[in-house]
Amino acid sequence: MKKNTLFASIAAVITVVALPVRAQSLVALFESARSYDATYQSAKSQFDANLAKAEQSRAGVLPTVGLAAGISRSILSVTPDIGPEINRPFGTQSATLSASHPLYRPANWITYEQGKKSIDVAQAQLVAAEQDLIVRVSQAYFDVLASQDSLTFVLAQKAAVAEQLASAKRNFEVGTSTITDTREAQARFDLVIAQQIGAENDLRVKKIALDQLVGKGDAQPQSLALPLALRSLEPTDVNAWVLQSEDGHPSIRQAQTALDVALLETSKARAGHKPTLDLVASYGLIRNMDGTTTSAVGSHVGSGSVGLAFNLPLFAGYAVQNRIKETLALEDKARNDLEGAKRTVAQATRTAFFGVDSLLGQVKAFEAAEASSQSALDANKLGYQVGVRINIDVLNSQSQLFQTKRDLAKARYDVLVNGLKLRQANGTLKAEDLQGVNGLLVK
Questions:
Q1: DSSP H or E segment with residue 360
Q2: Number of domains forming the structure of the chain
Q3: Which pick of 159, 302, 345, 377 has the fewest CB atoms within 10 Å?
Q4: Is residue 105 domain-resident?
Q5: Residue 177 is part of which domain span?
Q6: Which CATH number characterizes residue 62's domain?
Q7: CA distance 382 to 435
Q8: CA proximity to 287, closest of 277, 275, 298
Q9: pTM of the model
Q10: Taking the alpha carbons of 232, 236, 239, 245 in that order, is the dihedral positive or negative?
Q11: In 3D, which of 172, 178, 117, 137 has the Cα closest to residue 40?
Q12: Does a structural domain hold residue 328?
């Protein structure tokens, strides 16, 4: 098959698979997904709820003020043994304003500190949700590109096999080849048709997944700009990536905060033995309409008070002692959870690092294999023309070349996606990291 026929076939496929809209960059589709994806929006709402919950813990160290009011109507009925009967209605209106301010309540202050720690947990959870969204969008984005490439190469292979089939038929008609060549080419052509059907369906499914994620019905990713020079990992030492994870990985941050909260919980449990001191004040006003039970004259009565309320717990049935034992055990659990999180993150980071490093090596190997497969195909086609190669040799060479092209394209996409997953594994992935990938796309 001539090279211009192959290029024309690929160009035709690109025209077919391209949607009648302008292709979008990875950054653009990520921004769309950030405002649409239900999972991320749920995490964002949870973050807002956690912030509000953290503020609730502040109430324990602030004053409380209350207003109570009441109104009643009574009838005084007196039937004396001697004298006239008395039936007199009267009413009462009352209002009391009371306030209390904690002067010494160590448990309340510790609860407030725990509330502030929960903000750190909420932030770590939101960061983890954003990192997950970055990876999901990138994976879906390059899945579509990989599927498009696969369909492109299948159709190009179909055109090449069709030409080889036509050549075998011509040679058979003139008697320069056997029917075997024709049947082999026909079998390979039928196989490519089946591969085309599968590739078309795979592309359709991948597009649906991307559209669902970004909230668009016509998402069209930009292709990679070729030739593509993939950069090596920086830093090159896996231990440096692991060290980065210890500072800011969301899982480690959450585990460290959980340990801090557990330590505070032990302090709060020990505060169960300590006294409390509050400043209290109140002012009440009572209006007696039409008198009282002892007087027929209406009156107004006001009273106010300011004082200190002191409370010293003496014995609570060993509840405080047992609570301290519980919190100490929970401290140990939190320490073990923190260590477990560090080990898990370190293992995931090392696995991701070596995975990307291996993929970079595969890309170089596939690039070399592509060149050698093209040379092998050219040699087999020439050998077929002069009669030293048979048709199946050419067909196998074509199949090997297009399979290598698919594997090379897939490996390139895997390097980019797994590079982001590596940063997710060590907790340093940010939305800004997509700009580097964006720079490798066709403008």
A1: helix 319-386
A2: 1
A3: 302
A4: yes
A5: 3-438
A6: 1.20.1600.10
A7: 46
A8: 298
A9: 0.85
A10: negative
A11: 137
A12: yes
